[in-house]
Amino acid sequence: MIPKALTLKEIKDIVHAFASAARRVKEAGFDGVEIHSAHGYLLNQFFSPLTNKRTDEYGGDLSNRINIHLEVIKSVLEAVGEHFPILLRLGACDYINGGS
């Protein structure tokens, strides 16, 4: 299968899925939730200039590349409330020239 850029609707669906998963984590009795944006997983691919070739509000400079992160954090916070710890694991280095 050839990779393709996500549509804006697909991005919104993914953001919603993070919130739904976090809600289930809280309902299951865990003490907090970690959002994974490292090791080449999807959110990390948005963060890295090596993999993010988008030209919309989710691509380009760093402030755009983290938009999905900010949306996920906001939706997770709305799902679990202010008194439930939310962590974000960020793979902040690609170890390749031109990367993060």
Automatic annotation (TrEMBL):
<keyword id="KW-0285">Flavoprotein</keyword>
<dbReference type="GO" id="GO:0016491">
    <property type="term" value="F:oxidoreductase activity"/>
</dbReference>
<dbReference type="GO" id="GO:0010181">
    <property type="term" value="F:FMN binding"/>
</dbReference>
<dbReference type="InterPro" id="IPR051799">
    <property type="entry name" value="NADH_flavin_oxidoreductase"/>
</dbReference>
<protein>
    <submittedName>
        <fullName>NADH:flavin oxidoreductase / NADH oxidase family protein</fullName>
    </submittedName>
</protein>
<dbReference type="Pfam" id="PF00724">
    <property type="entry name" value="Oxidored_FMN"/>
</dbReference>
<dbReference type="InterPro" id="IPR001155">
    <property type="entry name" value="OxRdtase_FMN_N"/>
</dbReference>
<dbReference type="InterPro" id="IPR013785">
    <property type="entry name" value="Aldolase_TIM"/>
</dbReference>
<keyword id="KW-0560">Oxidoreductase</keyword>
<feature type="domain" description="NADH:flavin oxidoreductase/NADH oxidase N-terminal">
    <location>
        <begin position="2"/>
        <end position="97"/>
    </location>
</feature>
